[in-house]
Amino acid sequence: MRSPSFLRLLSKEFRELLASRAFWLLLLFVGFLVGHSFTTAVALYAEMSGTGGPAALPQGLTSLDGVLVPTWGAYDLAATLLFPFVAIRMVSAEKESGALKLLLQLPGTLGSKLAAKGLVLLFAWLVAWLPGIVAIFLWRSYGGHTYTPETLNLLLGHLLRGLLSGGLGVAAAAIAEGAASAAIITLAFTVGTWALDFVAAGRGGLVQQLASYTPTAALRSFEQGLLRFSVVVVIVILSCAAFVLAGIWLNIGQTIKIRLLTTLALLIVTFGAVVAGANLRASRDLSENHRNSFSTVDETALRSINQPLKITIFLSPEDPRLTDFEQNVLKKLRRSLDKLDVEYAASSRTGLFNSEEHYGEIWYELGGQKIVERSTIEEVVLDQIYTLSSVAVPDRSGDEGYPGYPLAAQPKHAAAIFYFFWPLLVIATWWLSRRF
Amino acid sequence: MLTVEGLTKKFGARRVLAEVSFTIGAGEVLGLIGPNGAGKTTVLECLAGLLPTNSGAFNYNGSPLSARHRKEALFYVPDGILPWAQQTVKWVLTFFERLYAQAPEKLAALAGPLRLEEIKGSRIATLSKGERKRVLLALGLLTSHPLLLLDEPFDGLDLRQTRDVMPLLRSESATGRTLFVSIHQLNDAAKVCDRLVLLNAGERVAEGTLAELQKQARLTDGGLEEIFLALT
After folding, report:
1. Which of A195, A266, B14, B20 has the fewest CB atoms below 10 angstroms from its CB?
2. Do A101 and B95 touch (CB under 8 A)?
């Protein structure tokens, strides 16, 4: 990897990146997107913090939810609609111009050539982060609070999101005849994952587990301050598999039959690796307000339950009570209990005009006993579980609450930075790069 | 140096090469001649490993040519490509020069006959067909493989440029390097090649020196055009 030829290949890919209009357009538009998201988020946060109206409860005001996630949401959009085109261009330009025929004969394996492309794409994605990083510093300069572990976790989520998008773009460009077809493949994949997200909501089982690794769902856990090792491993596996797939299809000296068979083998190996990775249960709650965990005393009490708990939910996927239950209770229970089985028993999608006999009920079964409950409030649910398992309800009075960080600041200088200086910097750098 | 035996290539049901066999001798300039659509480029791309073959064997110095050996043994310069179009000629040439650890004198020696000085600051995308061809030839000559495959090295060059390039190829061969060139201009082929392989409709029609081809065509006199017409 560190051979002189690899460094030369890396330098070639770097120059090709600088010659790519898609890259400069990504930089230009990402500045506008981040700028708009940031100014809107800061203004809304100020409004919620008490400027010109009633303030929200301070405990509900977190910089992560109020400013960082919406601002960096611009990168989710960029990773979906802009960055894949940078990746596609890295491969398609060489395929269409015939340069691929020279590239394949150059020193180094095809793997090292794809690694050079991957590293340069990673560099491109990190450069595109500059407006987002500037936004974080601006927020700090206004007096805004940030909590380093949850901020770094969010950045890790976007790094993986970019890695997956880049891999997907490169694979699509390697398989498709031209850049336009590659773009269609990439967008079809994205739309497919959105559809999977929608279909899997409130379904449970394999479909829901699969859907938790779609780019949007995977990013969501990082946005919640949760570091799930299974998500990290699965996204890295999928990204690497995408580059290997690109390698298979760029090996134009092989017959289509061999490429198809190798692709099939890759899919089988990737599926196995993803299933193994998805079984990793380790996770860290890096959010400052520990939103992904119960209180320390409850966590300790829950860990003492060894019997399997079965929860049967009679709530339809679009019922807001199910969303509450998922976010406030189930997500935490999955992290706290090793033996948890969740069944979604409602048959309708919306729950409107539902005449199912048990609709709205949530059944808890443990050690042959069953409790039926309708509440989705954390404390109520936990108390029911303690009753079933004969574990004493812990004393929660000592838990310190999250203070919250209200801030009524205006996004000073943000418009000038994101709408004027950033585009100017991008255009000037592009112009300078053309001279070398 | 390299023997090709029974090379067959099909695109779907269409057979474009049928049991083609020939030998490339060390240090020679071997010409692959034939009309458009004869399969010349396909032969070169199969040899370079850029196209899968249906059958056939390549032996390099007595051993089967594996993918790894191929990369060390030969380099193929395709015709009509536009590599790294947004880069300057100077950068692309320097990239190859450094990649193959060539001494600066090598590129300097190519600059005159290929008239690279006048285009070195231009981007590849802005070059004319002839200028691109000169850059591609330079790239091929900057590699260090014992066997260099050139697809239509004179296509796009004017008469004066062709006359400049021919001695360059001969002098490259004189250094011990083997050249295998596909050419459809028969007069040019006769001037630059030591031996020739005549391909027609995917089949090898003849192979040998000009004198040997004349004999095969049962001609006592006449150039390559007459031989070609007599044999195809």
Report:
1. B14
2. no
**Is A109 an interface residue toward B (CB < 8 Å)?**
no
**Tens-digit pLDDT profile for residues A20-48:** 999 999 999 999 999 999 999 999 999 88
Compute CA distances A58 → A66, A67, A151, A225, A427, whole Å: 12, 15, 20, 19, 42
**Angle at alpha carbon of residue B82, lines to B53 and B111, rounded to 5°:** 110
**How far is CA B196 from each of CA A253, A371, B1, B182, rounded to the nearest angstrom?**
26, 91, 15, 10
The answer to whether the beta carbons of residues A243 and A118 sit under 8 Å apart is yes
Q: Is B139 on the interface with A (CB under 8 A)?
A: yes
B183 closest CA partner among B50, B40, B76: B40
Q: Does A257 touch chain B (CB under 8 A)?
A: no
Please identify which residue in the block is written with the tokens 């027609």: B200
DSSP string, A367-388: TTEEEEE----HHHHHHHHHHH
Q: Is the CB of B82 inside 8 Å of chain A's CB atoms?
A: yes
Provide the terminal-to-terminal Cα distance of chain B, rounded to the nearest Å: 28
* Alpha-carbon span B9 to B79, nearest angstrom: 20
Answer yes or no: are the C-beta atoms of B206 and B198 closer than 8 Å.
Answer: yes
| Nearest-angstrom CA–CA distance, B54 and B119 | 41
Which residues touch A245 (CB under 8 Å, ≥6 apart)? A171, A174, A175, A263, A266
Strand (E) positions, A234-392?
283-285, 309-313, 340-344, 362-366, 369-373
- Identify which has the larger pLDDT, A419 or A401: A419
Tokens (6 digits) for B60: 């390099």
Task: Classify residue B6 as left (phi > 0), alpha (psi -120 to 50) or beta.
Answer: left
Rounded (10°) CA dihedral A321, A327, A333, A338: 120
- Give the integer Cα–Cα distance in Å for A433 and B3: 47
- Across A78-201, the runs of DSSP E, i.e. the strands, are none
**Distance, in angstroms, between B213 CA and closest chain A CA?**
33
Going by their DSSP bridges, the two strands A340-344 and A369-373 should be labelled as unpaired
Q: What averages of pLDDT result for each successive group of 10 residues across chain B (232 residues)?
A: 94 93 95 92 96 94 88 94 95 95 92 93 94 96 96 91 92 94 89 93 92 86 83 82
Distance in Å, alpha carbon of A159 to nearest chain B alpha carbon: 28
> What are the phi and psi torsion angles at B76 (to 5°)?
-115, 130
Residue in A5, A15, A101 closest to B81 by CB: A101
- Measured CA to CA, the distance from residue A176 to residue A88 in angstroms comes to 10
Assign residue A353 a region: left if phi > 0, alpha if psi is -120 to 50, beta otherwise?
left
ipTM (interface predicted TM): 0.94
- The answer to whether the Cβ–Cβ distance between A98 and B87 falls below 8 Å is no
The Cα angle at residue B195 between residues B192 and B198, in degrees rounded to 5: 105
At A3, which amino acid appears? S
Residue of A57, A87, A116, A283 whose CA lies nearest to A185: A87
Using the Cβ of B84 and the Cβ atoms of chain A, whether some distance falls under 8 Å is answered with: yes
Contact at 8 Å (CB) between A364 and A309?
A: yes
* Residue A428 in tokens: 């000037």
The burial class, CB within 10 Å (0-12 / 13-18 / 19+), for B151 is: buried
